[in-house]
Amino acid sequence: MGLLALVLSALVTPAHAQSLADEAEVHFYEGAKAYDTFQYEKALTHFMLSNRLSPNSSAAVNVGHTFVALQRFPEAYRWYIVALGLAEDEKAKAPILAAMKGIEDKVILVDLKSDPPGATVFLNEKDLGAVATTPATIAVPPGQYRVIFEMDGHRSVTSDKRSFKELAKRHTFEADLPAITGKVVIEGGEGATAHLGSETATKSCDLPCELELPTGQQILYLLRPGYRSQPALVNVVEGEPVTVRAALVQISGSVVVDATERGALIEIDGEPVGYTPAVLLDVPVGEHELRVSKPGFAPFVTQVGVQEDQRTELHMVELTPTFTVSAASKVAEDVREAPASVSLITADEIRAFGYQTVYEAVGGLRGMYQTDDLTYQAIGVRGFGRVGDYGNRLLTTIDGHTTNDDQIGSSYIGTDFLTDLSDVRQIEVVRGPGSALYGSNAVFGVVNLEMRDSQNDTRSHARLSATDGILRAKVGTGFGDKDLGGFVSLGGGFSNGRDYFFPDLIDPDLGIDGSSNNADGLRNMMAMGKVWAGDVTLSAAYYGRIKSIPTGSFETLLGDPRATSDDYRGFVEARWRKTLNERTSVDIRVFADTYHYNGVFPYEEEYIYNDKYLGAWVGVEPRVTQQLGEVADITVGAETRQHFLSHMQSFEADDVGVEPFNQPLDERPTFQVYSAYALADIHPGDTVRLNVGGRFDAYNTAVEPLASFNPRAALIVTPGKEVFKLMGGRAFRAPSPYEYFYNDGGIVQIRPDSLNPESVLTAEAEWTHSFDEVVRGTLASFYNRIDNLIDTEDVDDEVFRFANVEDVVNSVGAEMELSRAWRGGWMLNGQVSWQRTRIGSLVDGDELTNSPEWLGAVKGVVPLGSSARLATRWRVESPRLTNAGDTTPVANLVDVTLTGELVRPNVEWGVGVRNLLDTKVLHPAGLDTTQDVMPQRGRDFYVSIQGTY
Hints:
22-stranded antiparallel barrel; 52% strand; 4 domains; Serine Threonine Protein Phosphatase 5, Tetratricopeptide repeat; single chain; Immunoglobulin-like; mainly beta; elongated; 11% helix
């Protein structure tokens, strides 16, 4: 009864089901009775059935006891191991371990180990069934044994046959099971890691990668911070690579950004992501730096927290305008502190009014007026704009690179320049003498075009526009980012021109009725690009125009389609700008330029006069700026230009393309320019600045050497909302090769006997009051004294030539302006300018031709909803004196333009009317024409469309 008592005390484990438990209990009691009556074979059967029906340590240990009674000790040991595994606690295990210990001297023990563990173990033959799972200890009788280890995904291992004879000995079989592997290739998922089996497992590799994994089904977890985990079930097959493509989904939310300015660049953590207004999807969760910026405005920077699948909204981010100019001092500075009178035309204004040329854009600015002889357009400044000077007293630049040519000095501000202004982010107009920085040509001012750069929209675009009878097309694209990127643009224009009637030219004897038909066409083109990489910028441009001459200039045949004036201009420049330390910066330009002109002048059906000019030059300009403590900045620079190709030719021939029979002009006026300049910006306090400096230019010309020193000084006081500027300076202009050498053999023009450089002394005062961040009022006054003015003069009423005017030319004037700078789609500007320019005395001297005394203009933009704007410009101009002593009528010009955008597709559009009132406008003509005045365009229409992608 001892065995039965043992069993009864332990048989308390629950049954899997009541019926099985009942049957197991019956077999258990029958086994116990058989055991007590020494019927061991019968007891063994009942105990095994009981354990099979309801596995428990009591039944299993009784099977072991029964095998001991039968003297079958290996089997007993094995069942004790089974009982040990079913025991619930240490107390229950103790008697089982004691029983095992009691028979160890009657068996041979074999320890079975494998790497990795979990292998199924067979003795001698697999058909006999498995005996254990590693790690395990089994008992065997004396004999010869071979152990077979098997495990899924691993190669099986079979030991050598070993003979065991002595009882109570312990032996060990160990096996390393080589894994059966296949290749798994994980593509993509940069920044992620792969983990085998679970997300918490040790990293297997950094993606992308290749893994050798055991064959069979494996689970890989692809993990990356901020992304949802990607489990991948892979069936690994030996010798057959399996590819897994990482497609991690970012844990993200969205951000809605709108601003007072449309088209502002949005950056998140320094990466461009869109333009206002925008809904930014798939923004990673967490804290991010968000930056909204647009040229001409201070950037808005804030931190935004993005939550999973949530929307973060920033409505009406307010961008504050900044007023910076580079042309005044060759460095970016606040307009308030610039040592000059400055006006800015922003890209927003250019788009709103549909300006196509610089000539159009500057019309209506303080002191600026337009002159068009129907071949070339020029800008007059503060009462001075000589007809026939091709604008050579106004310096034009692109990002600081001079674009005036080297033969005439023409400023190129009309259709002979860029085909449109869509790549211009700001036009800077700097009035006053600029020779202290730029040398010759910067007599009355500098117009600088700041082009697209790393802060601008880099998307691709295609544009079509039409105005003034010119159809324009342009494509452009940008690439990269602010550290490495660029843009390129290609454009062209075409026009059949207009028909004109010139009553002054009617000559019945010659069969001339004054009509000029089909003789005003033009074709122009432009290619421009810029690339930046860190501190280095490479810029290049090439533009050209073929323009018919409708006016019979230089006494040519009126309306002859062969009469053309063709200009081609190009440059390439490399620039390195580097801030060496907190106080020192360096700026170095290296450049090369070209110029080509071809003019055809028909005088008879079988006689033409052909002018050809060629120019090419290279140069370098290094500049260093050094801060001296907290009270002064010193800029020192030098420049040299080597005009190694300068060729002026004139030919006489029977027709275009025919071998010439005479060459009246063949000059090679090469020249070199050597310059040095220095500027000191002294600011002893927050409200006072003194800017002084000067430039020395030495010319080695084909005629005679010349030198000029041109200083400037400006006192700027900025108490609170006021800005007071007192400015003075000197500028000069060296005679151009055209003025020095050109003659057409006495047909219309002869060569001068001599020419001296002209110079101007200027004094200015300007007061600006800021009513708030965007509204400002300005009062300005100026005085100019011009010596040795180079102008055209009649010689015996037959021909003209260039000569220095003996008398001094004096000019005095005042200007008043009230402006509300562009903000939120609104803009308003009004100005009145008065000047008096006289040869000799300001009181009773001779009035200068083409010099309007009064100029007035009002222009404004109002938003119409969120995606359209209405722009209006009204300009009034007093009469101008002509060469014949007459005056032009008052000019009264009204322009109206409506522009807007579509979001999908991304399209900008514009329509408008130029000279809405169809006012008759006349400009004085030069001595190269018989006419006294030139008619300007009447009412004209504007239309444009641009797609951005």
